Glutathione S-transferase family protein
Amino acid sequence: MGQLVDGVWKDEWYDTDSTGGEFKRDTSKFRNWATADGSPGPTGEGGFKAESGRYHLYISHACPWAHRTMIFRTLKDLRGHIEVSVVHPEMLKDGWEFRTDFPGATGDRQFGLDYLRQVYLKAKPDASGRVTVPVLWDRESGQIVSNESADIIRMFNSAFDGVTGNTDDYWPVDLRDRIEEVNARVYDTVNNGVYKAGFATSQEAYDKAVVPLFDSLDWIEGLLAQDRYLTGDRLTEADWRLFTTIVRFDPVYHTHFKCNRRRIVDYPNLWGWARELYQRPGVAETVHPDHFMRHYYFSHDMINPHRIIPIGPDEDWSAPHGRG
Ligand SMILES: N[C@@H](CCC(=O)N[C@@H](CS)C(=O)NCC(=O)O)C(=O)O
């Protein structure tokens, strides 16, 4: 695992020495938007018109951020319009690789490259920073549109509606303020919170992450006792952004990242909500426990030096959810 520095790959783990053992996530560097007419989005350059077959998505089935984009690709009927390449679940000294010796790892379907970093370098030969998934690639201009999942799901939510005819809306105008409020807490303490707990290299940094994480799960359990979804009676992006962390929680984060005060199955409302989302059409096919078990337990040998992949909990995601 490493990063690019002025176009050169350096094999180095996250630097937590300079931050008292705390994991600090980098901000994403490519922030353009695909839009219905190609006009610029909220950030970056314009010129990325939503068109069938024009864009290619690089993802890992292990990664919760990339998983969001795969869910939106399914929900918004984009499967026939945006092709996907899936990296190998092991992320080792070369970062994400396009090896195909794992079921579901497709290789690079566009260029036949060996490493994801080569895709970044194609877009920007002097790129610096972490080489992360997801990446939305524009085949027409040969550029990376975006490597920020939060933006990509909003593009998928509406930009391609004219292409697909699917106008389902997971970011409705009247709920946006509430969605942002929920997202902010969920991102900091849950989505990123599990990483902050798991990658901490001091007791203080771990404590500082794990306590707010479980406070937030209690808060969410309360919200879901009142309402069917996080922001009321409509399913929104706030739910999907939380879901990809929750589906990895018991098998991975509870053990590997030491988030073990409770399991998701111990929260009746949260567990029912999670099963409902899992059982929505097409969603289960986006969930790949073999990839996430292999990725986390095998790649992070500083956390799990013998790389033993645990058996994982026996949980029935297809049981009736009772949320109707
Ligand atoms: N803010 C980014 C974060 C993406 C991210 O951190 N992806 C992880 C995989 S779960 C990654 O590719 N990490 C590689 C690295 O940090 O070197 C997003 O949401 O799109």
Remarks:
- The two ends are 44 Å apart (CA to CA).
- The pocket of glutathione is lined by residues 1, 28, 63, 65, 95, 130-134, 147-150 (CB under 6 Å).
- The chain has a mean pLDDT of 97.
- Residues 173-288 form a domain with the Glutathione S-transferase Yfyf (Class Pi); Chain A, domain 2 fold (CATH 1.20.1050.10).
